[in-house]
Write a structure and sequence with these properties.
The structure is a homotetramer of 215-residue chains.
Chain A (H helix, E strand, L loop, with lengths): L1 H8 L3 H19 L9 E5 L5 E4 L13 E2 L17 H10 L5 E5 L2 H9 L5 E5 L16 E7 L5 H12 L7 E4 L3 E6 L2 H21 L5
Parallel strand pairs in A: 6-7
Antiparallel strand pairs in A: 1-2, 1-4, 2-3, 4-8, 5-6, 7-8
Helix pairs in contact in A: 3-5, 4-6
Chain lengths: 215, 215, 215, 215
């Protein structure tokens, strides 16, 4: 991993700062049980436009900067390293959202269960939560935000095609769910992406608590 | 932030001690997930009567004394700092309750969900819990305490007007809920305010567990 | 508190070791949220027969040996210290159970909610749990253990009278619940008492999860 | 314990590395509350084929390498040490699965409750979860995996006989439940076994959340 560490050390200040912030968020989310069994993956856009994605199989609670894989200027990864299989979903978000510089994907219990319970619906709608204001651009609780859900697929091309309609609209929801799988969330910087993910996981926990038929 | 730190270092012993206690409570509550996505805000009354409120957007798990904003003797904040948007609600409590020196506002899951489930009711009533004795002045479990709920509003003047009737009574409940939003709790010192908030969050968790129709 | 620390430092090895073990358990249980809002209290029997009980109002997550109050040889506490109001319930257990040297009282969410849901029943019965073997003397899961519940009361004499029938029998259950209040658990040493409490809290969590009507 | 520590220090690199990894996993799982009241037990296969099993009664949150008991070359344990009573279940798995080098047994709340709720069924079936891919050899969410459940028994010979049919098949599920008791999970190395256990506990938590009749 020394070679990879060197690559990161030579990056510009903005890129290094995004990587450092991403590592801190990954460890925090890992401690919360949001990336069980080495699941989940993370990426940032570097200042020169390249995308750094976590390698496959890393324990995210112990993530190191060197667990982020950097393509060279021609987009080629070093021999022998294996990026997350879901890298195409990260790249799609960066392509569709030029202002986005961080993409986070986790498997929290709330995300997994909610994505299965709401199946057959287009998405999960949130209304009247103050915490909706944690989403960039949302200024009031008195708004309805829809979190899309797409069907799971092991074929990344088909999965990306299912996500495409949601990414190409100007929806204020900076995230989508994959059924029985997890969530993708993004933001202009790592902190914003983490705030979005934290807010949506909180709202999904409320959603699950409120489904209790005693209510 | 250096300037702000200086201001705090020059305060009297009582005020510095309240700020230190508040920072410790904010970090503890942040670790419990009660201030997700940089939500929540906190304040203390200084010994000279001024109110110090947390700045907007701080991650409460990492709160520092310098994240508390101090108006000068004329009530004016330094240029460029932005106090929490909910500052007027803090000020209202200090105005109505002269003995109160600490106000805490958090968004725990129990608080958020309970405030939505009980909507349409005036408040949530607790009875027969030993932990009610954690509220100042309550000496027995055999009492009924009502936790008020007010509707949420982005207009702080209207929100304060809705809270006013509850603050002007001598209710033994040192807290109120805002629907889908969070809780305000207070006390004579930071420790007492924290004890109140901790007890009410516990009681709301019991309330949610007990709503299970299997009971 | 210096005076009190001195007293403990002069105790025999067995007594000092019980106090050290008790402090570690109290901090651990406090971290789990079992003593919210400074609730809960703890005691050990010293080797000379005296009972040391935690002072009133201590934050159990930060308990220190000096937070345990020691009567002198005539059973008199030093001036100005206030033992837990529930001290008589601790003393009753030590009187009825000569082999017991540690008594633990906490307010975990599972304990509080279960004690309220099972109201009107004599107690909560556990059957077919391997973890029942954590209770001293229990050798199989294929046994029925009843955890008694008594009504809450602010009068300690009446509360003790309600607990008396359960303490004077040879029941294998080393604990009882007080409705809407908490649990008392005991053991020959601090570790055993803590193992009993941990096992019963676990079983009560299972009890609550299983009450879900979908089961 | 010094004698035992010495024995471990003299082991080959692979065996020492498995023991170190096992101790880290045991502490982590203990912190999560998966081995309440000193329950649970763990083992690894050493490079020379001997099996090291945790001693009875150890607090797994504080596990040390010396808490693992090593038989000598003739399979005899040192005088006075007591291995876990469930050692025969560990040995059975190593006998049936020559590639397995780590076996983990815990009592998490999800495992205990799910094993009781599904009683009368052959096992619990999981389908359409991305996290199924955390199980070795599973490449897609679109598969049905059955987690077997066997009845509890204090007679280890009868318990092993009940587990035998599941161990002798080529099922992709690297774990089985014992009703009201806990889970056994295994893997080629400690990390893999831990990943399997973490994934299955996560899936059982989802299973419990989804049983809510409001769904």
């Amino acid at each position: 991993m020394n070679a990879s560490t060197h690559v990161i050390d030579k990056l510009d200040l903005i890129s290094r700062s995004r990587i450092r912030a991403l590592v801190a968020v990954a460890r925090d989310f890992g401690q919360r049980g949001w990336t069980p069994a080495t699941s989940g993956n993370y990426s940032v856009r570097l200042d020169d436009g390249r995308i750094a994605v976590t390698r496959s199989g890393a324990d995210k609670r112990l993530l190191e900067p060197s667990d982020l894989l950097l393509p060279d200027k021609d987009g080629i990864l070093a021999d022998g390293v294996r990026p997350s299989a879901e890298t195409p979903l990260h790249l799609q978000i960066y392509r569709q959202k030029p202002a986005v510089n961080a993409v986070l994907h986790v498997h929290s219990p709330a995300v997994t269960v909610a994505s299965r319970l709401a199946v057959g619906q287009q998405g999960i709608r949130f209304h009247n939560y103050e915490l909706l204001k944690a989403l960039s651009g949302v200024e009031t609780h008195d708004i309805e935000i829809e979190l899309p859900i797409i069907a799971n697929d092991q074929d990344m091309t088909r999965l990306a095609a299912a996500a495409e309609p949601f990414l190409s609209t100007a929806s204020p929801c900076p995230a989508y769910l994959i059924e029985g799988h997890g969530i993708y969330a993004w933001g202009e910087e790592v902190d914003g992406a983490a705030r979005h993910l934290e807010a949506i996981d909180f709202l999904l926990n409320c959603y699950l608590l409120e489904r209790n038929p005693g209510s």
